[in-house]
Amino acid sequence: MPNLLLETKNLKKYYGKQLVVNGVSLGIPKGSIYGLLGPNGAGKSTTLKMITGLLQPSSGEIVVFGEPWQRKHLGRMGALIESPALYGNLTAAENLLVHTKLMGLPNQRICEVLETVDLKAAGKKLVSQFSMGMKQRLGIAIALLGHPELLILDEPANGLDPIGIQELRELIRSFPKKGITVILSSHLLPEVSQLVDHVGIISDGELKYQGEISHKEDLEKLFMKVVKGD
């Protein structure tokens, strides 16, 4: 059994009477890049929002860092869920300064995370002038400020051009070497197949498949087989 950084046990979420996440039990190995896959509306984002405390589970359990989930654990996590909330009239460094003040972190972290996401050269350029890829990387920089052990990225390649996707891929690949475990949600299967070493496939709110995967495996074929129930 691998050393798990995060487990969800029979996690459920209702919106009213509608069951959108149904008994999902994930196992995220420490040091992995874990791909959480599924069609639109399958329950991926809802699951990630429960892990990050944005939503309360209807039932089930989340165990992280070897303990039942508590709000204090958020200090050891970083997340980019949906589009990053950025101030367009500020520079990248000024956006990060807002967050270091809120989090009580030293300002030296700003230079460190800007270097990590390759935005040091952005200088005095306002975020409103950034490309979509630069905005995504700045969102990841914000998520990295607190030295997270677990980084959760929900559809980080949305709206990116091929160059932006390649830059993002190289960035995400670098995280496990820095002691960061990554959960990556995406519907871009060819891209995900080059990144992840474990996958979970959710369909209709249920976890239909979970396991280790090699980069040579045909992830699209596996995905279609699982989702269509072949």
TrEMBL record:
Pfam family, one: ABC_tran
A GO MF term: ATP binding
Annotated keywords: ATP-binding, Nucleotide-binding, Transport
Coiled coil stretches, renumbered: none
CDD domains membership: ABC_BcrA_bacitracin_resist
Keyword ATP-binding: yes
Domain ABC transporter residues, every copy: 6-229
Similarity comment: family membership: Belongs to the ABC transporter superfamily.
Name recorded for this polypeptide: Lantibiotic protection ABC transporter ATP-binding protein
Phylogenetic lineage: Bacteria, Bacillati, Bacillota, Bacilli, Bacillales
